[in-house]
Amino acid sequence: MKQIDVCFTPELLYQHKIDNAIVVVVDIFRATSCMVTGFAYGVEGIIPVATIEECVALREKGYFAAAERNGVTPDGFDLDNSPFSYMNEKFAGSTIAVTTTNGTLAITKSRSAVKVMIGAFLNLEALAGYLRTQQYDVLVLCAGWKGKPNLEDTLFAGALVDRLQNDFMISEDAALMAQRLYVQAQGNLPAFVANSSHVRRLHRLGIHKDISYCLQHDLYDVLPVLRGNQLVRM
Questions:
Q1: What is the DSSP letter of 223?
Q2: What is the pLDDT of residues 103-119, one digit of tens each?
Q3: Which parts form a coiled-coil structure per UniProt (predicted)?
Q4: d(C-alpha 68, C-alpha 100), whole Å
Q5: What is the value of pTM for the model shown?
Q6: How far is CA 81 from the centre of its chain?
Q7: What is the pLDDT of residues 30-67, one digit of tens each?
Q8: CATH number of the domain within which 168 lies
Q9: What residue spans of the chain are helical by DSSP H?
């Protein structure tokens, strides 16, 4: 039977065999929530890159560009790392180059997988429905924060495990831990993450509305997948 597992941080990805698995990359606050939102609002493609320099080079070639480091957008970019910045009709039909502290790095580390897909609470059921039809194992890769696990990505991993528990074998403790955490938290996710490190970080930066938005379930029927060096809508 196919299996589902969870990797709490890209630093632990080396422990997982992904060449016969679909990797679902998640960075709830806020990279993958931005990507799902962008595709829902008509973005044609997203090029995830690991470094600021790569993103600048793509902007110089004519792409729109979004960047974030430590929650802040460097000068000279077209978008920040808020999903609300992707709700702009001028980006519909365009391709956006993106680099973030954690999320895009996790994507670039996953390229050897059968497929790399983008997960968020915003597209949770659409993603779960697709994965049920696939023959491959699934690994949920949490972007975390600078190599460390974080609460919100782990909760998403648990939510996906919970929705797929009847279709996939849960054989490792990481998946079981994430699922049990989500089951405990699902009644009030905003309260559950209220004292988490990333929420505190965003509040210090004056970012509030993104948090509640990114915790909403099943807003969009969007399935971003990596094709070559670019994310596209499946």
A1: -
A2: 999 999 999 999 999 99
A3: none
A4: 5
A5: 0.96
A6: 12
A7: 999 999 999 999 999 999 999 999 999 999 999 999 99
A8: 3.90.1560.10
A9: 31-40, 52-60, 103-108, 124-132, 151-164, 173-185, 189-192, 197-204, 209-214
